[in-house]
Amino acid sequence: MIQFLLNQELRSEHALDPNLTVLNYLREHVGKSGTKEGCASGDCGACTVVVGELQTDDDGREHIRYRSLNSCLTFVSSLHGKQLISVEDLKHKGELHSVQKAMVECHGSQCGFCTPGFVMSLFALQKNSDAPDHAKAHEALAGNLCRCTGYRPILAAAEQSCCSKQPDQFDAREAETISRLKAIAPTSIGELNSGDKRCLVPLTVADLADLYDAYPQARLLAGGTDLALEVTQFHRTLPVMIYVGNVAEMKRIEHFEDRIEIGAATALSDCYEALNAEYPDFGELLHRFASLQIRNQGTLGGNIGNASPIGDSPPLLIALGAQIVLCKGETRRTLALEDYFIDYRVTARQESEFIEKIIVPRATTEQRFRAYKVSKRLDDDISAVCAAFNLRVENGVITDARVAFGGMAAIPKRAAHCEAVLLGQPFNNAVVERACTALGEDFTPLSDFRASKEYRLLSAQNLLRKYFIELQTPHIETRVTAYV
């Protein structure tokens, strides 16, 4: 059984189909049809809902953290122990919520189909903001698309709702909601079981290892932003899933003198602060990683584990020399991330083995790390090419070189020939040009709807040139802002 709060209503579910999304649960099982399906792939934001989780600050203060999510990509099992808020829950005692009023007063809606999703993104923004911030408003709304109104009045609604922020019914009930969330906090393995399909929800790494050993055919579910597409886009059935989002050990970020250890189930939005502090280019790339709704769900381990050749984080992690810890039963092994990827969607992971955490080296003053993403639009788009460069230059000579790309091969991959040309050579234009030529030996990219093979190779070479120029003239540095 799983338990969660539907606004303030306790829901206990056991026999639901584990393949059921929160979107369809709301619309078909509880009659809340305000949440809309636009794309069923996490691109449009019409299905946005907000999930509240109990958080404890470093000073021991308990509060509820509200996050916007795409309900079309969220399976119901991931709600275990949380609070689900949909657009119907905002109106209180016959009065619109302040974010709804702002949308009305700023004329932020025409056909209205996308409006509930915008309202929920604004609600989450308001809950997580103390003052209006243009950049935060853009970030909060980048995952919501509108085809008729235009975005200026919606951004005006964001400013108004944050400027005129007033306590609402959720603030008034915070202590009560905290108490109720504590009462339903999971204490044992949860389960949804419809007879022919099941989803298990472990709470510890040990439980996860035991379950995965017992069900090696199970699909591991973290954020589900990739896995859920098999259900919503390809109409496949997932007979057995194991949801790892309630394993607290795999959601920790620990800092050591020489490294940062990030649990594989840590949401990308939670990774931002730690990675941005060490590597600002990594932080910049995370801002361009899909939408905030996706970053609130998607995990660093999931972005690695799905072994996509166009995943944004693997090239950066490979260039940084990151490692992963793989767990199977009581056995653990540490593997260089670059050795995890073998071929298209083929990895070094053994049966019943899972990624427990990612180890990222701390930055050093000698490193010159930069990352670049080339895509057809700036926000919420998949890379045509993703490049990461990490050179160590001492007395004008390149003493270490790690160059990695995504979108250039069947796997995220280091550019071995390029690195060989750079290593031990002076860091000058002539050497960089020879290294650009060597990229043609490292990669034979494919042509697809995102880019031609010629465009990809030329982009990769130009990004290396860009990296060199920026390091010589840092005042023109633009970092991860390249796009087609």
Features:
484 residues, alpha+beta, DNA polymerase, domain 1, Uridine Diphospho-n-acetylenolpyruvylglucosamine Reductase, domain 2, Uridine Diphospho-n-acetylenolpyruvylglucosamine Reductase, domain 3, five-stranded mixed β-sheet, five-stranded antiparallel β-sheet, 20 strands, 32% helix, globular
Number of helices: 17
Query: Can you tell me the CATH topology of the largest domain?
Result: DNA polymerase, domain 1
- Tell me the structural class: alpha+beta
Q: Give the proportion of residues in helices.
A: 25-40%
Could you describe the largest sheet, including whether it forms a barrel?
Answer: 5 strands, mixed
Mean pLDDT: 95
Global outline: globular
Percent in strands: 15-25%
Just give the CATH class of the largest domain.
Answer: Mainly Alpha
Topology, element by element:
Elements: E1 2-6, E2 9-13, H1 22-29, E3 48-56, E4 62-70, E5 83-85, H2 98-105, H3 115-127, H4 134-141, H5 152-163, H6 169-172, H7 174-183, E6 190-193, E7 198-201, H8 205-214, E8 219-221, H9 229-232, E9 240-243, E10 253-255, E11 259-263, H10 268-278, H11 280-287, H12 292-297, H13 300-305, H14 313-319, E12 323-328, E13 331-336, E14 341-343, E15 346-347, E16 354-361, E17 367-374, E18 385-394, E19 397-406, E20 413-414, H15 416-422, H16 429-442, H17 453-472
Parallel strand pairs: 1-5, 7-9, 8-9
Antiparallel strand pairs: 1-2, 3-4, 3-5, 6-7, 10-11, 11-16, 12-13, 12-16, 14-15, 17-18, 18-19, 19-20
